[in-house]
Design goal:
With about 375 residues, the chain is α/β, with parallel strands linked by helices. About 20% of the residues lie in helices and about 25% in strands. It has 2 domains: about 5-270, Spore Coat Polysaccharide Biosynthesis Protein SpsA, Chain A, CATH 3.90.550; about 285-370, UDP N-Acetylglucosamine Acyltransferase, domain 1, CATH 2.160.10. The protein has helices spanning about 15-20, 40-45, 60-65, 105-110, 110-115, 135-145, 205-215, 220-225, 250-260, 265-270, and strands at about 5-10, 30, 35, 50-55, 80-85, 120-125, 130, 150-155, 170-175, 180-185, 190-200, 235-240, 245, 285-290, 295, 300, 305, 310, 315, 320, 325, 330, 335, 340-345, 345-350, 355, 360, 370. The termini are far apart.
């Protein structure tokens, strides 16, 4: 079956302003060499989807630099391929004063032209704040088998720590897997299934629902489209039980990054048959100087390690000076540390310089963050 994809690049920017002030959520670096968009993009490509639109809002220059022509995902094509869909001001409401969209539904209203021009029967929707490796062909098979109008991938939760700051949607289903109730998630004692914001919709159903919402002045996707159609439409739920990490704050970004040091998490995300693709860079191998020590860390290529690194994530081009000790930290691309520096629970953005003899420490629940290009 022909399927097209739509990725929301910025819906959750407000969850992590420290890293999204200069980039969109989709282009936030993760795991030494990846960006968050690499996961939904690779999930779609691995499932045979070759036409993908990325809905942008602002600060998407780094996203465009990362995606390029899409050749690293085999999406540099004359027909289909990857398309950056810039915001279409007032496309959903001419009376909004020229403001850009602020919700998922308004974002969809801005790309109805893309949806209407697609010839594919199904549309896959995905956010960028969730990190997982999912076989969308299995979701599509379940969608077709149940003759659903829309299938929402859900995941079980038992506590509120992985819930976005703007909330999540709980979906209750009957014994056949069809939604019976849609509501905002509220922390409680019993387990619940919440939406991962990964969905497969019949294209015409989605287009009609968005156009109807636009005509009525609606703005909330789950409340105004899904909840209103629980009884009239076939809204299917597909429960995903694999590794799912959600970035909801700087603290959760730190925690989800550190979980990569756990073998079961790495093996659940980086699966040989469903690889995660990213922009390739030709860098020299990392240099480990005499006397350096690296323990339980994830180190990219192009680095120079002269000191000690423990339980840390080190991105490309990072320099660790002599006598420097880096523990439980995330150093983004081209961070430079001088000699005799001590870092613990620190996150540096790109191109940060930390001078000699500095001691910086945060905590797992509140990591010490240094903004892009800063010198300490």
């Amino acid at each position: 079956m022909a399927v097209a994809g739509l990725i929301f690049s910025n819906i959750h920017n407000s969850s992590m302003p420290e890293l999204t002030s200069v980039r969109t959520m989709a282009s936030v670096p993760y795991g030494c060499r990846y960006r968050l968009i690499d996961f939904p993009l690779s999930n779609m490509v691995n499932s045979g989807i070759s036409k993908i639109g990325i809905i942008a809002h602002n600060n998407y220059q780094s996203l465009m630099d990362h995606i390029g022509t899409g050749k690293d995902w085999d999406l540099a094509r004359r027909s289909g391929g990857i398309r950056i869909l810039p915001p279409f001001i007032a496309s959903y409401n001419s009376a909004n004063g020229g403001k850009l969209y602020t919700t998922r539904l308004e974002a969809l209203m801005g790309v109805t032209s893309f949806i209407s021009k697609c010839t594919e029967e199904y549309i896959v929707l995905s956010d960028c704040d969730g990190i997982c490796t999912i076989d969308l062909n299995e979701v599509l098979a379940d969608h077709i088998k149940k003759n659903a109008d829309i299938t929402i991938v859900t995941r079980p939760v038992s506590e509120k720590k992985d819930i976005p700051s703007d909330g999540a949607t709980e979906i209750k289903c009957d014994e056949n897997g069809f939604a019976t109730e849609v509501s905002a998630y509220i922390e409680h004692d019993r387990p619940a299934n919440i939406s991962t914001n990964i969905m497969i919709a019949n294209r015409l159903f989605l287009l009609n629902a968005v156009n109807d919402a636009s005509a009525h002045g609606y703005s909330h996707f789950y409340k105004d489209i899904i909840a209103r159609r629980v009884k009239s439409a076939r809204i299917n739920c597909y429960q995903y039980d694999g590794i799912y990490l959600q970035i909801t704050s700087l603290e959760s970004y730190f925690r989800c990054s550190m979980q990569l040091l756990e073998p079961e998490v790495r093996h659940g995300l980086f699966v040989e048959e469903n690889p995660i693709y990213t922009k390739l860079r030709n860098s020299a191998p990392t240099v480990y100087a005499e006397g350096s020590q690296v323990k339980n860390s994830y180190v990219a290529d192009g680095c120079v390690i002269e000191g000690t690194v423990e339980n840390s994530i080190i991105f490309r081009g990072v320099h660790i000076g002599k006598g420097t000790v880096v523990k439980n930290s995330i150093l983004l691309q081209d961070t430079y540390t001088g000699d005799n520096v001590n870092l613990n629970c620190v996150i540096t953005d790109k191109n940060v310089v930390i001078r000699n003899n500095r001691v910086l420490s945060g905590h797992e629940s509140m990591p010490f963050f240094i903004s892009k290009g800063a010198m300490v």
